[in-house]
Amino acid sequence: MIVLTGEVLVDLIGRNADSRASLAYTGRLGGSALNTASTLARLGAPTRFVSEVGQDFLGEWAIARIAERKIETRFIQQLPGVPTPLSVAEVDPEGNARFSFYRAFGSTQFSPDSAAMARAKWFHFGSLSAFEPRNIAGIENLLEIAREYDVLVSFDPNLHARPNETYWEQLRRYMPYVSVLKASLSDAQLLFPHAPNDPQVLLEHLVELGAPVTVLTLGATGAMAAFRTRMIRVPGVKVAVADTIGAGDAFMAGLIYGMMKQEIGSRMELLSWDGTQLPVILSSSNHLAAITCTVEGASPPEQPLHAWWERFG
Fold it and tell me: What GO molecular functions are on record for this protein (predicted)?
């Protein structure tokens, strides 16, 4: 069982020029960790999502859509009196998105049921929601359970702005739990704004955070990883880009899926892994991210996904 926690968002996606008198958006289910969970479930992995939504129409709609994706939903709580969060994404002609987020959970505390970690073989978390004060204690409780039962943990920062010192303090508390860190080039640039804009240097800075496996995605130009004393780079995959929404989340799904195929059952086993399949895992994750970019939104199209599974699954 792969257990993931993060936001459930309704993404409103538009391609609106500044000169338009009115705005048009298409609503889709979103949230970084949820996008990763959705792709994992489509690949046949038993998947459970731990989160919250409002006790409103959008919350009910979101839970129904999540269940349709064959993701276990019994640990998604509906909170009364608050609306389900929204994100608004404006996509430019090159397919890149700018986001605005609208959240109103207030001071209510995220209190996930410890039973959510039952039978967990992998736990994934990340994004800015992991650094909201209301969420931290609940996430740390799940991480403590992961540590007690030696469950592998992955983390994706998925930043949209330069972090402050409060973020860094919490990141330092999270990192001892993390076995696999995946960051984008943009994440690394925001985390280390004074470092040279060189992927290898940025990866070296990420390695210093302490995860045994550290991955840096480079968009169209590929991905890099560091494991033990090795540094690996694989090329990107050229596709016609509709938008880049969810590409990093799809990469994360490919990374988790590929690592689990290695039958690594604990952090200790990860530390003794020979890593020979890591270039293949990076390449397959790149391909999964690339096919996600060929359509609007964060869901890989069915036929290319099936072809991916036949090649890498």
Answer: 2-dehydro-3-deoxygluconokinase activity
